[in-house]
Every structure is written in C-alpha cells, then in structure tokens.
Amino acid sequence: MDVLPDCFEAEERSVYETSELLHLVSGRDLFGIVSVADSVKELSYACREKLTRSGFRASGFTPNVSSNVYKDPLSMNPVDIHKKEKGCEHDIPSSDAFKDIELRICGKAVATATRSPKCNCIDKSDAEDHIHVYLVHNADASDLMQEHILLGTITGLATTGEEGSCCVYDGCGIKTHVIMKHRTLMVKHMHWYQVGDKVSPCECRCSRARLPPSRYWLFEPRCYMHDTGGWYIETYGRDKKGRTIPSQRQWDGFNEHSEKFSIRNRRRLHPAMYLVALAYRSLDLEDARRRQWNMCDFLQLPLSHILQLFKKIVNGKKKGVDMRTP
Questions:
Q1: What are the angstrom distances between the C-alpha of 20 and each of 3, 14, 93, 193, 283?
Q2: Closest of 9, 37, 11 to residue 225, by C-alpha
Q3: Is 289 exposed, middle or buried (0-12, 13-18, 19+ CB in 10 A)?
Q4: Using an 8 Å Cβ cutoff, are 251 and 132 in contact?
Q5: In a 10 Å sphere around its CB, with 0-12 CB exposed, 13-18 middle and 19+ buried, how is residue 72 labelled?
Q6: Alpha carbon distance 275, 312 (integer Å)
Q7: Mean of the per-residue pLDDT values of the chain
Q8: pLDDT for position 79
Q9: What percent of the chain has pLDDT over 90?
Q10: Model confidence pLDDT, tens digit, residues 219-233
Q11: Beta bridge partners of 115
Q12: How confident is the model at residue 242 (pLDDT cuts 50, 70, 90)?
C-alpha cells in the first residue's frame, strides 16, 4: 500500500482502556492505527546533559541521540530544541490528551507526536498548546537508533475552542497551513488550507458526525472497541487545469515532496499531520465527555442520599400506621 485512499474513516475508540485511539479503515479493511505511545524510551534532555562521552565509550556504544548534547543551543536540531522547551514533566496534565502518540500504517511506524500545554518554540509569548509531529525516518532500526525528523507543529488545537482556527508550522517554524474548526447540526468539521497570497482550495476535509449507539446501526460494527463512530477524511489536490479533485497521499517518508510531484502539490502536508491532529482532537472531545460524566456522578451522589432518606421517612410513616391499626 504505497498511498492512502483519497477518502477513508478514522474510527474512534469507545473503550477507554484500549490504547488504540483511531482505527484507519477503508470499507471494512483496517490499514492503520493511531495509538498512545507505550512509554518514552529515551532519556530526557536534563539527564543527557549529565552523561559524559567516557561513559558511552566504556559501554562500547555511541548513540546518535546524545550527539547534540555538547553543541550550542543554536546549532541543535529542531527535535532537541522542541524537547528542551517543552518544560518540566509535572507541567503536563495526566489526561490522555497530552500523552505521546504514534502512527502505524500497514504495521510500520510512520510518525510520532508529542503535545505540551505551553511551548515557546515559535513565539515567546505564546500560551497555546503545541503538537510536535516527528517522522520516523528509519522504522527498521532499533528504538535507540531511530531517527526522528520534525515534520511540523500544530498550535492552538485545544485552546481555540469548538470553533476557531489553528496554525500549522513546518520544521523551520514557517507558517504553512491553517486549520478551520466549525460545527453544523450534529457534525464537527476540520478543514485544512494552505497559507499564501492566492486563495487556497481545501487540502483536507475531516467530518465527525454524531451517531446513535451501535445496537441501532444497520450493519454490525467492525470492532466493538471502536463502535462509537469516527472521522470521515477526504484529501484533495489539483489537476493540470487547476481544478480541485480527490487526491491520494504518499505516507512512506518524504515522497510527497519528491521531484516527481508537481510544484503545485509540493507544499502539501504529510498525511501524518492530519491524522495526529484528529487523534488529539478526539482525545479533547473524549476528555470533555469524561468531565461531564464526572459532574453527573457528583450530582447524582447527593440526590441518591436524599432519595434514600425520603424512602426511610415514608417507610417509617407506614410502619407507624400499621402499628396503630388493631
């Protein structure tokens, strides 16, 4: 599978215990998964600063991860800069909405993403959440030797509310796209547009319709752990005459920006950017629903006590009446 379909679905999880956030399906065929990363398998920046080269020589191993520790901050690669500016671990909320996620297509690790509530990697006064998406360049290598390339950064996905706009920046910090979030009757939308002087067609359109419970569906769900509905994703491009048409996307590496693609399509985002944004958007919606459930449980607790007290009073009156009757 060299390219993604020009339209497919991303089924959201309906069970909180599973780590598989989205199932990417075409028809009833599963071809990709967006899941919560198991754990961070690399040392933090603060820990790597304390390590010395002699320690690595003693073990006979010199990882590429620590090669930028002794460099000046200006000469560090974008991955290290973003990881350093994310801040302390305790500043990140415990919700799944701020956990690291990974994208796998056809069983191959394609991209990983991290999210921080605040980050000053682009604007020093920026108070919006930042999502950093990294391309796994060599998925066949071991975890310590994998090379991660910064694909881009998405800002303001959680802080702009249900309706608003988010910004997308490339690996160099240049603003390239805008995400428009809006709603229609029982449907949520996310549209992606390129930033430029000319009017840009919609590059990707994502829709999330509210569905009834799966027991009322006409067809049996494909997976009962993902039977709550999901996003419908459509990707677009332009033909030789400049008309907007459905367009497939390359997902393996940087082929989307290779020379065999025309200039008008070379600024298109890697599909991992769309899918990561959808995963975190789904986590935000899931977190909002869980907070509503917690509030309902909080309100139901006193009401249950009042109901029990009322029953005791009624039962006590009935017993008193029964005792007075001869």
A1: 22, 10, 20, 28, 11
A2: 11
A3: exposed
A4: no
A5: exposed
A6: 55
A7: 76
A8: 47
A9: 44
A10: 999 999 999 999 999
A11: 131
A12: confident
What lies within 8 Å, CB to CB, of 208 at 6+ separation is 187, 188, 189, 229, 230, 231, 232
Supply 307's token pair: 């109901």
β-bridge mates for residue 191, sequence order: 180, 205
Query: In b/e form, how buried is each residue of 14-27, taking b as 16+ CB within 10 angstroms?
Result: beeeeebbbbbbee
- Nearest of 207, 220, 271, 223 to residue 20 by alpha carbon: 223
Cβ atoms of residues 265 and 44 within 8 Å: no
**Is pLDDT above 90 for 201?**
no
Write b or e for each residue in 152-175: b if 16 or more Cβ atoms lie within 10 A of its Cβ, otherwise e: bbbbbbbebeeeeebbbbbbeeee
Residue with tokens 């796998």: 104
How many Å apart are CA 181 and CA 189, to the nearest integer?
6
Kindly report the length of the chain.
326
Proportion of the chain above pLDDT 70, given as a percent: 67
What are the CA-CA distances from residue 306 to residues 154, 293, 295, 309 (Å)?
48, 20, 18, 5
Q: Mean of the pLDDT values across residues 188-198?
A: 89
Helix (H) or strand (E) holding 182: strand 175-184
| Residue closest to 12 by CA, chosen among 37, 43, 40, 33 | 33
Q: Which amino acid is at 189?
A: H
Residue written as token pair 């200039």: 263
